[in-house]
Specification:
The complex is a heterodimer of chains A (663) and B (218).
Chain A: H1 4-29, H2 40-64, H3 71-76, H4 83-88, H5 94-115, H6 121-145, H7 169-198, H8 203-234, H9 245-270, H10 274-296, H11 303-308, H12 311-334, H13 349-381, H14 389-412, H15 420-445, H16 450-478, H17 484-490, H18 493-518, E1 520-526, E2 531-534, E3 537-548, E4 553-563, E5 566-571, E6 574-578, E7 583-587, E8 589-592, E9 597-609, E10 612-622, H19 625-643, H20 652-662
Helix pairs in contact in A: 1-2, 1-6, 2-5, 5-6, 5-7, 6-7, 6-12, 7-8, 7-10, 7-12, 8-9, 8-19, 9-10, 9-13, 10-12, 13-14, 14-16, 15-16, 16-18, 18-19
Chain B: H1 2-10, H2 18-28, H3 32-54, H4 63-81, H5 90-108, H6 125-139, H7 144-155, H8 170-199, H9 204-217
Classes of the chains: A alpha+beta (663), B mainly alpha (218).
Amino acid sequence: MTFLNEIGVFALVCAFVLSVAQVALVAAGQWKRLSGIERYSEGVSLAAALSLILSFAILIAAFVRSDFSVVNVYEHSHTDKPLLYKISGAWGSHEGSMLLWCVIMLSFGALITLLGRGLPDSLKHKALGIQGLLGAAFVGFTLFSSNPLGRLAEAPLQGRSLNPALQDPALAFHPPMLYLGYVGLSVVFSFAVAALIEGRLDRAWARWVRPWVLAAWVCLTIGITLGAYWAYYELGWGGWWAWDPVENASFMPWLAATALLHSAIVMEKRDALKAWTVFLAILAFTFSMMGAFLVRSGLLTSVHAFAVDPQRGILLLTILFVTAGLGFALFALRVPELKPGGLFAAVSREASLVLNNLLLSAALLSVFLGTLYPLLMQALVDKAMSVGGPYYLAVFGPIMLAAIAIIPISQLMSWKRSDLKGVVQRLGLAFGVACLSAAIGSLFYGGAGVWKQVTFFVGLLAGFWLIWGSLRLLMERVGFGAAAWRKFTALPLATHGMILAHVGLGIFVLGAVVEGHSRISIQQGMQVGDTVRLAGYEMTFTGTYRQDGANYDAQGGIFVIEKNGRQVCEARPQRRFYPASGSMQSKVWLCFEPLNDLYVVLSQPQESVGGKPVWQVRWFYNPWVRLIFLGPVLMALGGVLSLFDRRLRLGVATKARKLKEAV
Amino acid sequence: MNRKRQDRVTSPSPFMGRGDHLRSRWWAGPTPVSQCLTVVIAALAVSPAHRSLRSRSPLPMNGEGERRSMSLLAVLFLLLLLPFTAHADAAHADAAHDEARAKALYREVRCVACQSQDIADSDAAIAADMRREIREEIAQGRSDAEIRAGLSARYGDYVLFRPRFSLGNLLLWSLPPLILVGGIAVFVAISRRRGAARDYVLSEAEEARLRDILKNDR
């Protein structure tokens, strides 16, 4: 099957041509003489998706077969690699990940066809046209500037292997989840542009778009969390978020999607905030594309590397500017024609969600500035500068704090007009309990300095306020009586989802505050038999061991950790040598105390003292760090619950219409 | 006092015993007695609110209830101050304060040899050197601002994770809050205008009647 890869390239070409055809059909259908032809775009979208999936399957097959005649496989794979990492190698490279992006994009186009039976035909076809346009742009980019199935003249015997740091289960699934989220927003973008062309923006539109926003948001949440978890236990630096531009690139679409999620609710329920919701829909995907541009152009590694080979970057930037420009131009043209929707008072749930959106937008802007400012300064005035954690803590932190503070209040408000005093009174107990929880928390984890104490307390208060405030809502709806369980099960899934997601956010905030505030570490050269102490634990270096892995040789240390003379765990961190790429990789060992982690990293053994090697050991005590990863999982779960709410379930409209026709 | 600080700087492992330090501080500050008091006061404070909840009146705020909830809040706010009574002996607090300052500064300084990492997290040799520099400068009594200025003079602005407030960084610092304030202002303006427009649109018949009334008045 030596020509299998050529079939893959051919399938890629087919997908490109079919995507162009999809756009052409929809465009031609706007011409009176050919009206009706646009319905063929539905079939074309399915065919395009299938051929791209075929192409991707062939790429994966090339990785699984270790076909080193393909450049991409040669550069990112190795015969000794475990199967999972051979497969994940398919999206471990620039070319492969662009192909994955396109596969998801065209598959979502097909899903518009498959799930959109309840949609009005003209809207559906226009959305398919826009989705086809995006698909054609990205498939064309992949095909012409980063062909994943390009061949080498002579096939080498062995590949260069995937970067060992990427050989990890969390990172195998991180890019697909993230891309599902990024590209899921492309469907929202397509629907927004289609609705603008149609000149029809109503509650029904918001209802069709919301499941897509929600699904994309869930995938983004999971994808970002997987990435953070990977950074936490694979990179061996004890932290989980560095405000690195690559991380920010994924966080910006998330913030935009979160704002969109909330404004779409207002649009669906109250027919208000139409222009703003559509603006956010366009903005969210623009940030997705910007993330792709930042990460895929090589701009972030160094501005100079970008200048040497700017072709890919310029192409991506062109796609970004053309599509986003098209969206925003259309928005500017059409917005004056929009009829203003439902009115609401300054104190109402709508108004509180507007405030939430403004806060999220300001937070988004701070991340955007922090990410791009150093790049701009470097490019414009050739001045090197850094924007890091302290900046975000000072600017992003207070904005998000305000956003969090209004969540419990917003949850209890009624639509149209609400009574602030009543809501505050209903929340008094929750606030009191939150204050109490935070005070007790500060007693146990508080540090030195009044300012640190205050920020720590405020952070804890925000987390507990979210949790108790959300539970207060649940309590109001369910109560404690005999009917509690019945009422609990009768609550709409969307309400359950909202409460769960907000509680999850609160749990995340608690974890982030406590971990960020009270993490302590120690770095020490140790010989076998040495003991160090940290946060009441005692760690003794008892011995070393060797292990032969599938594609690495590991050297490890055995450390016994005790608390009050009782053994808590045995840590076995490793240093792995990967002969294929000739690189070393530290493997962290995590000891799970219920919420806290004991985190042990081994560095290279150094000079011998008296014949015994000295190992550099870093040991972190990370309190409440589990919550940082548990919180987003709950948030995503809340999103999924909400997705299964009856009102949002896809196809409900179809059923209702069929029933009507039958009657 | 000063010698003690010097010891901390030159000891082979400056991190040694930091955990124990933290641990002892919990108990050195608030005594077990004050902690028990916290819990008791808190329980008392919450109980009246709990009763008002039991009574299940959604808006129970007559004068008495309001006063009670206000006193509840006052007690709770007092409680918040308890953790700040933590510092028992001044010398200990001073050393702890220096330690906290150093740790906060580590988070602001970029390890120049690493990929976007601060020197607190990095185990690179240069990061250890920079940490030592900062500790020494703190021991010499320099202020945080002086230390930052020194670092940026030696390594350039690149080394500071918190960009300085300068003309070049004006947009970076001011745009997010400005957008927030501007956004709120625009929203208020729009909703006012829209509300006003809705309230005062009259139909043609009404306009005619209005003209009649005005004419008759004259």
